[in-house]
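FORM 7B - TANDEM STRUCTURE REPORT

SECTION 1: FIRST PROTEIN
SEQUENCE AND TOKENS:
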Amino acid sequence: MRSISRAALLALAIGAAAPAAALAQQGTLKLAFVNPAALFENAPGRAAAETAFKKETDTFRTQLQAMNDNLQAQVSAYQKVQATLTPAQRKTREDALRAQDDSLQSRQQQFQSRAQTRQNELMAPIMEQVRKVIEDIRVEDGFSMILSNEPGATVILAADKNLDITDRVVARLRTVAASQAPKATAPVSAPAGVTRPKPPTQ
């Protein structure tokens, strides 16, 4: 599930009980950190959700590719006869190609919007499940805060490796997954748009 955003990963990993500064003054601050990507990879329902999302979007993606291929073929055909056409004929053909290109762009935008909406719908329950496991462990062990240690984005410059509870959270997630029936509740990467040829100009 590679499509989850950095902001979502950070939100996934953080569960604070009180402001860190206030707790530090009281001498009661207890911290831990996790790798959000590792948690998401082990979230219950992830694999089933990837399959479901792909199935839901494959049909529309195929339609877009067919539209793109058709436009490419028409552009190629036009370029072969362009020199033999009158100015009026060229304008008519080019206007038609531009209209077809506009239609393809519109369909791509619709597809991407629908895919993003569906992605968010599928992501929400999985994110909530992982947050719940993190919060349960935070409460059980009395952590004041659980931070993100996402590679390349963490603000943690140095820390005791014993504070990393990623493996513990992953183990809990696997236990949760084993107790649940597979559910399609997470997205895959947002589909990339097909490459569109540009209609020729005079």
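SECTION 2: SECOND PROTEIN
SEQUENCE AND TOKENS:
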Amino acid sequence: MKEDLINLGFTDRVLQEASLYPDLYLGRVIAQSKDVYTVATKKTKLLSEIAGKLRHSITDVSGYPSVGDFVMLDREEDGSGHAIIHNVLTRKSVFMRRAAGTGHDVQVVAANIDYVFICMSLNNDFNLRRLERYLSIAWDSGATPVIVLTKSDLCNDLPRKLSEMRSVSTGVDLIVTSSLVEGGYSTIKTFISPGKTVAFVGSSGVGKSTLINRLLGEEVLPTKELRKDDKGKHTTTRRELIILPGGGAVIDTPGMRELGVESVNLDKTFTDIDELAQQCRFKNCQHENEPDCAVREAIEQGLLSQERLNNYKKIKHETNYEGLNSRQIEKQKNEKMFADFGGIKNARNYIKGKNR
């Protein structure tokens, strides 16, 4: 049972915060279906719903419990009706995206994760611009991104694609896998251990469910063949946290071909552009027609692609970071994050008071 609790992520940090609620019980959200949550406790799995008081205190969609969240319940065993979620504990990381076609509505993909496995197949799904989007969100989440390239057996120009991939993913581990070769997925096991949680994200049909089935040692998650146009079919329809027999947990997510960005880390994703921008004559250089623009010079010398700069600007525009440097972006994100507390200083005082 102790190993199961570790694999659920009940670390000392989580247990310490849970102790602030002596009349409630700790659990972790492992699945969600509309307003009903499946929560794993140290004794069982419970169907749960959030308390009315908690619902009224939530100011935006991201405040609702999501898969991976640690929550405090009114019980830890089955009873009459659904268990009630009274509190959501502090998230150490959260992968969020702007829901497609909904303006500024935010969707929490997974919470309290250690690694984000960005899965991309080496066939028609291969897309550097989409990868940059995933990396921007993953770095901002607080988790560590890892690129997992699937279906290497379908790729005829692997060295070229790996070179292109490395040019836009500085500092990120890159794993090449194949479902057809024995042990062709074993490298990903090095990132998964007791107490660690990994979220698999990517487009439909890239092989996320296949990889998780290999880790489980059995065909638990449904998989389907690609369509005739080489695009994936949707197999995973909801997010779900799964405990692995060898230790650790994984979160399978539905395919996301469209990825709206809400909050990003451009400094780590576009390190090359950020470093070049510091060499520009003007601090607020837009890298268009300004004199002595180091970014434009790099493009003219073939050291940076115009497509990468265009994507950088596009993501900046979508997140309302246009015209800001990395330090200004971080300041704006912090002000937005702690707006409900009246600023960072008030938020720190609140946290100190809560921990007394």
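SECTION 3: OBSERVATIONS ON SECOND PROTEIN
Confidence is low (pLDDT under 50) at residues 226-234.
The domain at 270-323 is CATH 1.10.40.50 (Ribonucleotide Reductase Protein R1; domain 1).

SECTION 4: SIGNATURE
Preparer initials: ____
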